[in-house]
Write a sequence for this structure.
């Protein structure tokens, strides 16, 4: 049954949960409501002034029995609304559909991501980070509700149990959570509650329907771009196309003459046109005569950036890992192999273009946006407006894709600066061209390898030097210590799974002039697993060893890596014959707490067209919360990665990005999508992340498959720059 | 002043003739289910039905749809194909971020309307204009198949 949701939803016959997916601007009476609010309430209305039970920042129970999870993480497609709700519901002993959601307000103290240190959704950390805190929040509430009921019945709490939203006494009497709210709220919050043992889980690990789907199939779901505020105007913007350039002058006479164009806003480095709707704003923008001061980067090209990087990569870098003594071992090697790998700048191109709606008044600022970092949104708005942070309200919406782009607040900074000059609320929307040309880009990386094999073809010495921009140094400066960016070497250093006696890994920071670099799905490992797994494949070929066998020989101490590798090989039929022109390639990875092996079957036609036909992926992410979400994230992650390995690249000419839209920043379409098979390993290890790992290891699986069928090693991505027609 | 018939309702609108239907729907009529993705007919996020056929509303001037029947994702569930598609979408759990899905559903419902049991390659042909950055394509394929088999 399709669920139609609205405030006056009357379809619920049994008086069970009624749900609304409210996104409102200014509520009646001028009170402001949160962006996303996914409520379920029981038939009876809560009386105003009645007590609610809020044992911690995450759980709120009303006298009508409705339960709200104040959701620290944002939903951008990864299914976190559902998985986080499952953690609470499991410990609280309620059905999943009894839990309503509300986006948490910006507050680093209450809602910090335990793995990152502030309020952020990213790095595939939601389940690993909140696995314990949210279960604890649910368990604490359960223990207090039991205690409240037990004292009413005058029995021992230990003799009572919680079940389906009620506490049950030894004699079989029942009290609903709603009826216990007042009493529970008066109890002191226990510090140490016992969490359920995994063998007693009834929800975690079982397939749960996603809570956010119904509203996403009938157009009701509200993304940031859908925010509608009474009295709002619409704006679109053009920032200086040359990075670091400034606005010199603008003639707006033609634009202002257009019907519906209201205002032209000038910023230091950008111009925006405000109109009655997006169309007039777009028309107005193209009618402007803008002169830019191109600034210091007008001569920057991809080539100049790469040359600078190649030079930088010749110096010694900050040490990331040293086992044994590489310098001593390498001269004694029987065979030495060198390789240089390069990976391009990438844009995110989430389907929802960058946008942000803002209302700045004398003493307040409201922001309606989908953002992975709510507190940073608040901070930047405070800086731009000069208002104290508590006067900035962030209404967080659904995100139409994040992939790392919405971990940066540059779009919010700009929108607030525009809104400061506009009367009333204004929605700023970037065109797709603006979105691609003013992204924060996945860095270009330049990797050098040297390996030494002994006379028995054993890998005895291995050096990997990573050169590239440090996102961490800009985004979280305190984490950048002694010249080492742990993310830039993630997957290459500590998480490198192979046993080799002499390993040296170092990092050279080199910043491309003008460009801002940022997080991109799979972060450090997406880069490192490509280069490492490609180079390991080169070494297998150099020793004429089967790529799976070669890897296995160095993984004896990595049972979980071996486990996924063997599973993928078995399911893919590794070693079985393939048609002419088709090859198989393998990769393994340990990233974001999850072990994965992928095997890709790739066809290269006679005229050089590359087609990924089939991908087999074995996943060990420890404790599984929602199995179908894991499969979906892996499928989607692989498809995201295939776009990048085949075609993804942002190139620079004259200090500006050359790509503009999906015609020249090509992404995978349904007719180009391979068959994807995902196999999950079941165990009770700590849960790993799942939003990004699928993207991480697909590139080397594809390029290793190309090598298997053509003998051509792809050392520079994307494949299109190396291979056949576009 | 163009009058449009959107989801069975007449709207008299004060907008320029060359304004694309997408912005009329979103910013004037405030039906935000139809999405902006590229603005130049490359991504399919803005797909709506005009007289039952899928079009890219980002490049369709409002003057070209006057007097025609416009259906958006908000009302597609009232058509038999649309209802089947939505049901299959829920059942297969197609959706991730959801931003592209209005367009996917409109393209899929139009396909099913004109071809009740499409083959794999017919699905590819009908759906290749709709980009999904979250990569829900394998499930879109499966859901269209399921919908085509459901009564
Ligand atoms: S927005 Fe119309 S096709 Fe992309
Ligand atoms: S579901 Fe996110 S773009 Fe398709």
């Amino acid at each position: 049954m399709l669920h139609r949701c609205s405030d006056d939803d009357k379809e619920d016959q049994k008086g069970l949960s009624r749900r609304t997916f409210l996104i409102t601007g200014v509520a009646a009476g001028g009170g402001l409501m949160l962006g996303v609010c996914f409520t379920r309430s029981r038939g009876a209305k809560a009386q105003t002034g009645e007590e609610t039970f809020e044992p911690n920042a995450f759980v709120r129970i009303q006298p009508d029995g409705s339960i709200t999870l104040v959701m620290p993480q944002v939903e951008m497609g990864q299914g976190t609304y559902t998985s986080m709700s499952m953690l609470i519901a499991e410990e609280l002993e309620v059905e999943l559909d009894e839990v309503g959601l509300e986006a948490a307000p910006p507050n680093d103290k209450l809602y910090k991501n335990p793995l990152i240190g502030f309020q952020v959704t990213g790095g595939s950390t939601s389940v690993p980070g909140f696995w314990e805190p949210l279960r604890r929040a649910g368990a604490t509430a359960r223990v207090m509700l039991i205690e409240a009921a037990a004292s009413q019945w005058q029995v021992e709490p230990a003799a009572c149990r919680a079940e389906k939203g009620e506490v049950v006494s030894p004699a079989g009497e029942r009290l609903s959570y709603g009826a216990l709210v007042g009493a529970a709220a008066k109890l002191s919050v226990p510090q140490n509650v016992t969490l359920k043992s995994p063998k007693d889980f009834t929800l975690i690990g079982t397939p749960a329907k996603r809570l956010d789907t119904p509203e996403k199939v009938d157009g009701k779901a509200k993304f940031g771009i859908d925010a509608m505020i009474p009295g709002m105007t619409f704006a679109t913007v053009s920032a200086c196309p040359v990075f670091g350039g400034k606005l010199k002058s603008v003639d707006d006479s033609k634009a202002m003459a257009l019907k519906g164009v209201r205002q032209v806003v000038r910023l230091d480095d950008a111009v925006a046109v405000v109109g009655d709707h997006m169309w007039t704003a777009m028309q107005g923008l193209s009618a402007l005569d803008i002169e830019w001061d191109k600034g210091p980067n007008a001569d920057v090209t991809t080539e100049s950036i790469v040359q600078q990087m190649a030079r930088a990569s010749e110096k010694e870098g900050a040490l990331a890992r040293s086992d044994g003594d590489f310098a001593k071992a390498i001269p004694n090697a029987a065979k030495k192999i060198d390789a240089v790998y390069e990976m391009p700048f990438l844009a995110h191109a989430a389907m929802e273009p960058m946008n942000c709606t803002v209302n700045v008044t004398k003493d307040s600022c409201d922001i309606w946006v989908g953002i992975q970092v709510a507190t940073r949104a608040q901070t930047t708005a405070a800086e731009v407006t000069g208002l104290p942070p508590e006067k900035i309200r962030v209404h967080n919406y659904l995100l139409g894709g994040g992939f790392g782009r919405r971990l940066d607040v540059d779009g919010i900074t700009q929108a607030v600066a525009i809104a400061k000059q506009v009367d009333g609320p204004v929605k700023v929307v970037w065109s797709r061209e603006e979105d691609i040309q003013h992204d924060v880009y996945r860095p270009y990386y330049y990797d050098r390898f040297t390996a030494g094999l002994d006379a028995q073809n054993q890998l005895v010495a291995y050096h990997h030097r990573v050169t590239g921009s440090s996102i961490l140094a800009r985004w979280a400066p305190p984490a950048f210590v002694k010249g080492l960016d742990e993310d830039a070497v993630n997957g290459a250093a500590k998480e490198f799974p192979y046993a080799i006696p002499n390993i040296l890994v170092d990092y050279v920071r080199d910043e491309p002039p003008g460009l801002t670099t940022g997080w991109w799905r799979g972060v450090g490992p997406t880069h490192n697993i490509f280069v490492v797994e490609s180079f390991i494949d080169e070494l297998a070929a150099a020793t004429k060893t089967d790529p799976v066998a070669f890897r296995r020989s160095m993984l004896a101490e990595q049972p979980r890596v071996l486990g996924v590798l063997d599973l993928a090989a078995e399911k893919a039929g590794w070693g079985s014959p393939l048609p002419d022109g088709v090859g198989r390639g393998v990769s393994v990875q340990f990233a974001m707490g999850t072990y994965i092996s992928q095997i890709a079957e790739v066809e290269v036609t006679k005229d050089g067209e590359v087609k990924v036909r089939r991908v087999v992926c074995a996943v060990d992410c420890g404790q599984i919360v929602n199995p179908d979400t894991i499969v979906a994230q892996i499928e989607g992650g692989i498809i995201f990665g295939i776009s990048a390995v085949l075609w993804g690249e942002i190139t620079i000419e004259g200090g500006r990005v050359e790509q503009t839209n999906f015609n020249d920043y090509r992404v995978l379409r349904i007719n180009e999508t391979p068959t994807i098979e995902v196999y999950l390993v079941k165990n009770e290890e700590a849960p790993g992340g799942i939003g990004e790992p699928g993207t991480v290891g697909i590139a080397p699986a594809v390029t290793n498959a190309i090598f298997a069928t053509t003998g051509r090693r792809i050392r520079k991505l994307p494949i299109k720059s190396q291979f056949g027609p576009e | 002043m163009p009058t449009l018939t959107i989801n069975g309702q007449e709207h008299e609108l004060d907008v320029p003739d060359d304004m694309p239907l997408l912005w009329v729907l979103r910013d004037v009529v405030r039906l935000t289910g139809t999405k902006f993705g590229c603005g130049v007919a490359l991504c399919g996020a803005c797909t709506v039905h005009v007289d039952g056929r899928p079009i890219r509303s980002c490049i369709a001037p409002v003057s070209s749809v006057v007097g025609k029947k416009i259906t958006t994702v908000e009302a597609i569930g009232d058509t038999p194909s649309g209802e089947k598609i939505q049901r299959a979408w829920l059942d297969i759990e197609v959706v991730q971020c959801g931003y592209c899905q209005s367009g996917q559903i409109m393209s899929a419902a139009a396909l099913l309307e004109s071809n009740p049991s499409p083959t794999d390659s017919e699905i590819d042909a009908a759906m290749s204009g709709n980009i999904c950055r979250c990569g829900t394509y394998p499930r879109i394929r499966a859901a269209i198949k399921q919908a085509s088999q459901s009564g």
Remarks:
- Residues A 77, 351, 401; B 95-101, 132-134, 136 surround FE2/S2 (inorganic) cluster (ligand 2) (CB under 6 Å).
- The first helix of chain B runs from residue 21 to 28.
